[in-house]
Amino acid sequence: MTSDTPPIAAQGVATLPDEAWAQARHRTEIIGPLAALEVVGHEAADEAAQALGLSRRQVYVLIRRARQGTGLVTDLTPGRSGGGKGKGRLPEPVERIIRELLQKRFLTKQKRSLAAFHREVAQACKRGLGSSGTKNQRKA
To answer: In angstroms, rounded to a whole number, what is the distance separating the alpha carbons of residues 103 and 96?
Structure first.
């Protein structure tokens, strides 16, 4: 690797903290037997929810993930939110384009329609980002 090559960011299960692994193992011990059942009743789901400190709905989500997964502990690792309060969900270049166009075109006395603004953002992302920005831009 040359010195001008950007470093590869470590991602995935290899970087999971020990606490996340422990939580995934605990979830697997409880959810695994339930996922093997054809039908999981409310009582069993409620017991699992109590043991895991989750809601019944979250238990059913974990059961679905276990059934659709590969059968590994990593199927039930806690998810990480990519966004949330105070954090953006879009890549920074897309955020920059949207901010710029908001100021120039939308936050004016003569506002464009939301549809026209959306089209302009999509076109700017295609021009400025190539193919990588269009997928993420649709979530805006």
So the answer is: 11
> Measured between alpha carbons, how far is 28 from 5 in angstroms, rounded to an integer?
40
Residue 16's closest CA among 102, 96, 76, 64?
76
Question: How far, in Å, CA of 60 to CA of 52, rounded?
Answer: 12
- Residue 86 has which token pair? 């105070």
Domain ranges of the chain: 13-76, 92-137
Give how far Cα 22 sits from Cα of 11, 16, 29, 46, 47, Å: 18, 10, 11, 21, 20
At residue 14, the pLDDT reads 58
pTM of the model: 0.50
28 class by beta-carbon count within 10 Å (0-12 exposed, 13-18 middle, 19+ buried): buried
According to DSSP, the residues that pair with 126 across neighbouring strands are none
Question: CA-CA-CA-CA torsion for 11, 83, 112, 131, nearest 10 degrees?
Answer: 10
Reported as type and span, the H/E element at residue 60 is: helix 56-68
Report how far residue 75's alpha carbon sits from residue 44's, in angstroms, rounded to the nearest whole number. 20
Does residue 6 surpass a pLDDT of 70? no
